[in-house]
Design goal:
single chain, alpha+beta, Fumarylacetoacetate hydrolase, domain 2, 2 domains, 5-stranded mixed β-sheet, 7 helices
Length: 311
């Protein structure tokens, strides 16, 4: 059970969410139900109900129950059917805009450590990204100028989303603090990261280098986050194909370890590492780094396909 904070925060249940980029530039929640998307902003206005309009607000303010009430009201109202759209009608926005923390785990798959010739870590390797790196599904991500970096790589990752404040939690209880999961792509400038003084922050947090999406899937819908297939394709060619059962440190271990050092708060997100198959792991004569026009699609089982195009 939660060991930090004065109240038990209600976690989202049976919800698959996305972000809608509106014509006015705002990014607001959509609730996915099969092919249908409930436009939360329109529904709240039509039904005169107060509901969180972003995933940040839903999690940080603990308003899952308010959103669930809105969804039930839409289903019960004939006139509210006008706020239901199809996914082909929308442009995806960023799932997260202002998470308190973006925490990443490096070198967290056994076969990935082997392919890059590094020892298996004894403890999780942690680094961070900033919010400027966040990007949506179907984003166009600008490559840095060549003189800054020209060795850009992909990394499919399971993203864990925290739903309750957690400090010094046990591995046995760690998943009780998870609100949900997403597909992420930890884009990485390897020359900045590894060839210029081990600058992991510089290599990992350039603008747009943390795409997440297309969906947030509530944790109750994922039976075991430590047994999910992952895949990356570049221009249709499979580059990564693995399973989270190759984790060195599983989700429970990662959450418990982080929470011993600082408090995890609702809305914080954790990139849990990438499996083998990255460009960095290839022999140098086969390292064809990402270039303008490349389409990278990352997929985690039951969480959807996250696509970005490099420019």
């Amino acid at each position: 059970m939660p060991q930090y904070g004065s109240a038990v925060q209600v976690l989202p249940s049976k919800l698959t969410l996305l972000s809608i980029r509106n014509a006015d530039g705002s990014e607001t929640l959509g609730v996915k139900n099969g092919p249908d998307i409930i436009d939360v902003r329109q529904a709240a206005q039509l039904l005169a109900l107060d509901a969180p309009l972003t995933l940040d607000r839903l999690l940080q303010d603990g308003r899952a129950a308010d959103l669930e009430r809105l969804v039930a009201a839409v289903h019960a109202s004939e006139r509210a059917q006008t706020v239901i759209r199809t996914e082909s009608e929308i442009t995806h926005g960023r799932l997260f805009r202002n998470p308190g923390k973006i925490i990443c785990v490096g070198l967290n798959y056994r076969r990935h450590a082997q392919e890059v010739g590094m020892a298996i870590p004894q403890l999780p390797i942690l680094f961070s990204k900033f919010s400027n790196a966040l990007a949506p599904h179907n984003a166009t991500v600008a490559l840095p100028p060549r003189e800054l970096s020209h060795k850009v790589d992909y990394e499919v990752e399971l993203v864990v989303v925290i739903g309750r404040a957690a400090r010094d939690v046990s591995e046995a209880d760690a998943l009780d603090y998870v609100a949900g999961y997403c597909t992420g792509n930890d884009l990485s400038a390897r020359d900045l990261q590894l060839e210029r003084g081990s600058q992991w922050l510089l290599g990992k947090t350039l603008d747009g280098f943390a795409p997440i999406g297309p969906y947030f899937v509530s944790a109750d819908q994922i039976e075991n986050p430590n047994n999910l297939q992952l895949k990356t394709t570049v221009n249709g060619e499979v580059r990564q194909s693995s399973n989270t059962n190759d984790f060195i440190f599983n989700c429970q271990q990662v959450i418990a370890y982080i929470s011993k050092h600082w408090t995890l708060e609702p809305g914080d997100i954790i990139f849990t590492g990438t499996p083998q198959g990255v460009i960095q792991g290839l022999p140098q004569d086969r390292q064809a780094w990402l270039k303008a026009g490349d389409k990278v699609v990352c997929e985690v089982e039951n969480l959807g396909q996250l696509a970005v195009t490099l420019a």
